TrEMBL record:
<dbReference type="InterPro" id="IPR002925">
    <property type="entry name" value="Dienelactn_hydro"/>
</dbReference>
<dbReference type="InterPro" id="IPR051049">
    <property type="entry name" value="Dienelactone_hydrolase-like"/>
</dbReference>
<dbReference type="InterPro" id="IPR029058">
    <property type="entry name" value="AB_hydrolase_fold"/>
</dbReference>
<keyword id="KW-0378">Hydrolase</keyword>
<feature type="domain" description="Dienelactone hydrolase">
    <location>
        <begin position="30"/>
        <end position="234"/>
    </location>
</feature>
<dbReference type="GO" id="GO:0016787">
    <property type="term" value="F:hydrolase activity"/>
</dbReference>
<protein>
    <submittedName>
        <fullName>Dienelactone hydrolase</fullName>
    </submittedName>
</protein>
<dbReference type="Pfam" id="PF01738">
    <property type="entry name" value="DLH"/>
</dbReference>
Length: 236
């Protein structure tokens, strides 16, 4: 494994995930694992976990970088993101370790990964490559996730929901179609929803950079929560 990757993401990295138990006895066995943006675990992801728990499901927002290790400057965020997704095997090993630590006793839990921006891609990675995953939801995530080396190595039983801004400059029409063709080739259950007049980061209240294609959209965010709740209900 790449030593730089280990130094950044594994060696002596202490993490504190944000765990919220579900409030419904018939839903709490569904464990939603929340992958953060490239800014790391923030109040935004914790708020998502609280919202999911209010619906009755259990949720864990992952501490991706470690306590007090979130990057602050844009250059730092891009550098950490680049190191994280540079190689498939280290990434998936880390995702498996974080998922296990987040879910305590995985046995008996139905694990659904969700994520935002970078986390959207990470949710798709986890859904496709971690065999204990039942579902994956990407909010304005990139479609550059690592494809499985063979059909036998893909977790084709994962259900996929992609919520995408149609005006997101980071997801081209070719990107979207190629991902759809890939999932179709594996006969996977997927939904790909395009929201009109919607840019990247539409779920993030702090996003306000339309000149660079990033803008919060409160109406679409509300719709996104509705799609998520409906998707999670499928696993009850």
């Amino acid at each position: 494994m790449n030593q730089t990757f280990e130094a950044i993401f594994k060696d002596n990295v202490k993490r504190m995930h944000y765990q919220v138990d579900g409030l419904s006895s018939d839903k709490s066995h569904i464990q939603v694992v929340i992958w953060p943006t490239f800014s790391g675990l923030t109040d935004f992801e914790k708020g998502i976990a609280d919202h999911i728990a209010s619906l009755g499901f259990s949720a864990t927002a992952l501490d991706l970088y470690g306590i007090d290790q979130n990057p602050v400057e844009m250059e730092q965020k891009r550098a950490k993101m680049g190191a994280l997704v540079a190689e498939a095997d280290p990434l998936h090993e880390l995702q498996n370790e974080l998922t296990q630590s987040a879910c305590d006793a995985i046995h008996g839990k139905t694990i659904v990964h969700i994520g935002f921006c970078l986390g959207g891609r990470l949710a798709l990675e986890a859904g496709l490559h971690l065999e204990n995953s039942a579902g994956a939801v990407s909010f304005h995530g990139l479609m550059s996730f690592f494809r499985a080396q063979s059909e036998e190595k893909a977790n084709t039983k994962t259900k996929i929901l992609v919520l995408n801004g149609h005006q997101d400059p980071l997801v081209t029409e070719d990107d979207a179609q190629e991902a759809k063709r890939y999932w179709t080739s594996l006969a996977m259950d997927f939904q790909f929803v395009d929201f009109s007049n919607t840019m990247h980061s539409f779920m993030l209240p702090s996003a306000n950079n339309p000149e660079h294609g990033s803008q919060y959209n409160p109406l679409v965010a509300k719709r996104g929560y509705s799609y998520l709740e409906s998707f999670l209900e499928e696993f009850i």
